[in-house]
Design goal:
It contains 17 helices and nine strands. It is an alpha/beta fold. Helix 8 links the parallel strand 4 and strand 5. About 45% of the residues are buried. InterPro entries: Metal_Hydrolase (IPR032466), Pept_M19 (IPR008257).
């Protein structure tokens, strides 16, 4: 642990009257789940093994089995992320094929290591999996475009384990408008409304992260089950359009929903435009999307070039303090029964001091220092997510 980090920990422990060992013991007693893991993108890489220890510095990965154990992460929702392509028959076909390939990859990960992972399809299954020492694998979808060619395929995904559906990503799709694009549908499309109702009937959680405000409002009005924001922040703290304003946070909670707090740096703090940085990094990020076809040595070289470009065009530093400002604000607004953690690991999440899942117990220490109880932490780290999952399944 770096000296500066150690000093912060000592101050926190003095503030809450705890020892480091006590915090770690409490953290280990909790069921610790994350609602948004983009790790399936890493699973596509040749030779990349989730059972082996990796490092963010070497290959930009943030989740593997050894680091999950280090950080006390019991599992979470592994996301079927599909980059948004053109809204054409060809684009929809590619999205359909991509989605099925990713869910197969997730299930193959579980099948290859039955001693380490177990697929959960009901909230009630999770405690027993954790008690067995295995990691919980839940399946979500980020961007519903794989369903555009055939929305009825949602039932197929459900049979394969899908239990959370994020309607849209960074661009508008066939179902909904994105928070970061000009409105096309002005909320949900007719197909999007049908998809929300189909998900309700199957007991699949509807995820409004990345969705426009209009989509949020319409989903909340339409859904027969509580709704989740699987990786979002507080707009009052970071005015990014992806984040939720206090009024919408309250309405989400009033309907029984949960907001899972994100760690994506550009969503945490306002940042000035930096065209030179964007120009340098854009081709590298496009190359990173092709990492599944690159051998490990090329991935390591790409990680080095990305770090060098980021160092040439630095952004204001973001840290665990910035995450906690969002987390504590949202807790103040809606209370600990409606908050969780969805850090966006392997999808751009992480800050200085919280670079990968091995460091998760620092959040526990911060929450204890802020006066939250062990029961509050149990709710925040996993209880609220499981409750919501169970309510969605009970409502169908």
């Amino acid at each position: 642990m770096p000296r500066s980090t150690r000093y912060v920990w000592v101050a926190l422990m003095l503030a809450c009257g705890c020892a480091l060992a006590d915090v770690r013991a409490l953290h280990e007693r909790l069921i610790v789940l994350d609602s948004h893991l983009d790790t399936p993108m890493q699973l596509a890489r040749p030779g990349w093994d989730i059972g082996q220890r990796h490092s963010y510095a070497d290959d930009l990965s943030q989740v593997d089995l050894p680091r999950m154990r280090d950080g006390g992460l019991d599992g979470g929702f592994f996301a079927i992320f599909t980059p948004q392509g053109p809204l054409t028959p060809e684009g929809r076909t590619l999205a359909s094929e991509h989605g099925l390939a990713v869910i197969t990859r997730i299930r193959d990960m579980v099948a290859a290591r039955p001693d380490a992972f177990a697929l959960a399809t009901r909230a009630q299954e999770v405690p027993a999996i954790v008690a067995s020492g295995r990691r919980v694998v839940l399946i979500s979808m980020e961007n519903a475009e794989p369903l555009a060619a055939d929305p009825g395929r949602l039932a197929t995904y459900h049979r394969l384990g899908l239990r959370m559906l994020g309607l849209v990503h960074a661009q508008n799709n066939d179902f909904a408008d994105s928070a970061t694009a000009l409105p096309h549908w002005h909320g949900l499309s007719p197909a999007g409304r049908e998809l929300v109702q189909a998900a309700n009937r199957l007991g699949i959680l509807i995820d409004v992260s990345h969705a426009s405000d209009a989509v949020f409002d319409q989903v909340l009005a339409l859904s027969s089950a509580p709704v989740i924001a699987s990786h979002s922040g507080a707009r009052a703290i970071g005015p990014h359009p992806r984040n939720l304003d206090d009024e919408r946070l309250r309405r989400l909670a009033a309907r029984g929903g949960v907001v899972q707090v994100n760690t994506y740096a550009s969503d945490l703090v306002p940042r000035a435009l930096n065209p030179e940085r964007d120009k340098a990094l854009a081709p590298l990020y496009r190359e990173f999307r092709l990492a599944a076809s690159l051998p490990p040595a090329q991935v390591a070289d790409l990680a080095r070039r990305i770090r060098e470009a980021e160092a040439r065009y630095p952004l204001p530093a973001t840290s665990l303090d910035d995450i906690m400002r969002h987390l504590l604000h949202i807790l103040d607004v809606v209370g600990p029964r409606h908050v969780g953690i969805g850090a966006d690991w392997d999808g751009g999440g992480g800050v200085e001091g919280l670079r990968d899942v091995s460091q998760l117990s620092q959040i526990t220490a911060r929450l204890l220092a802020a006066g939250y109880s062990e029961q509050d932490l149990a709710d925040i780290w996993g209880g609220n997510l499981l409750r919501l999952m169970g309510e969605a399944q009970a409502a169908h």
